[in-house]
Amino acid sequence: MNRYFFYFIRILALGLMLPGCGENPSQRILFLGHPYDWRTGDRVDPRIEALDLSVYDQIWLGGDVCGQTTKLPATLDYLDTLFDLRSSRTHWAWGNHDVLFGNTDHIKAHTGKPDYYVSWQDGYCLLVLNTNLFWYYASPPQQQDCEAKAAQIALIKAVTDSIQQASHLVILHHHALFNEYKTDAPGNPADAFNGTTIPIWATCDSTSDLTKTVYPWLSAVQQRGVKVVLIGGDFGMRAKTFAQQTPEGIWMLGSGINNSLESRFVPDYVTSFAPDQVLILSYNRKKKILNWVFEPLNNLLTRS
Q1: Residues 6 or more apart in contact with residue 48 via CB below 8 angstroms
Q2: Which of 48-57, 150-159, 234-243 has the lowest mean pLDDT?
């Protein structure tokens, strides 16, 4: 069993018993999906470099932070100067580009956090997933990292079984989840997230259909009065924003950017060059209300 599992379950249990104690009644959060600079493998979009990130209480990274995040150790040093990776205000759901060259121990060394975990946020619960552990291909699940896969699902189960006093369960992820429910996307889910896979396998078990296994757990959380919100970052190539509420009331959100891609090097899977947008959330600690808005990235530059 992953050694972080029990540690973060203890954090969750303590958090659910403690009242909110933040001095600032509102928490302002910037979510960045797929923010890398297409022209180089070791940088984020230059517009993000230009932002004043200090105005946000939390920075949530939706994965694929750089095109080749772990190829060179210096890339993580650079990201650390931007996002203060070890800070409790920074949370990162790893993308496939983040693990493309392995060396995931370098990410953990800079963040001080495991690849999936739960964090109490003074009113709501943040669950950060490593969707690279899921299997997104039309074949039996690969028999690899089976212990880590099982531990991640066990963490999701433990959180969804125990969460009660939180106002929200927010799930930060990279790859698309629950594509069966993305009925509001134009055409099909490929017009939103960068993936159409159904089913997605949660573990090495060939019966571990992610939607059939996990979605009922989330529905039960929603029925107990804890609002469930999923935020994904494998996004921006076919659409800039996505927001849909399932019949059970669960919100699925996504945003991402790609405007640094030069038009002469456009791959087939990129179909949108609309202005890039980011997701900004606000959580009122006293009223226990989570709101969000999609904001053009260029607009944020004029305020920095």
Answers
A1: 32, 35, 82, 297
A2: 234-243
Compute φ and ψ for 67, nearest 5 degrees.
-70, -30
Check: CB of residue 116 under 8 Å from CB of residue 83: no
Fold classified for 3-17+27-303:
Purple Acid Phosphatase; chain A, domain 2 (3.60.21)
CA distance linking residue 111 with residue 109, whole number of Å: 6
Mean local confidence (pLDDT), 17-40: 77
What are the residues facing 44 on neighbouring strands? 36
What token pair was written down for 240?
Answer: 């800039």
CA 195 vs. chain centroid, Å, equals 15
The predicted model scores a pTM of: 0.91
d(CA 49, CA 16): 36
- Encode pLDDT of 98-123 as tens digits: 999 999 999 999 999 999 999 999 89
Q: What is the three-class DSSP state of 168?
A: strand
DSSP-derived secondary structure for 77-132: HHHHHHH-TTSTTEEE---TTTSTT--HHHHHHHH-S-SSEEEE-SSSEEEE--GG
Check: CB of residue 301 under 8 Å from CB of residue 51: yes
| Residues, the chain | 304
Rounded to whole angstroms, the Cα distance separating 114 from 137 reads 25
187 closest CA partner among 251, 271, 268:
271
Strand partners, 26: 284
Report the C-alpha gap between 229 and 122 in whole angstroms.
16
Domains of the chain by residue range: 3-17+27-303
pLDDT surpassing 90 at residue 184: no
Q: Are 8 and 118 in contact (CB under 8 A)?
A: yes
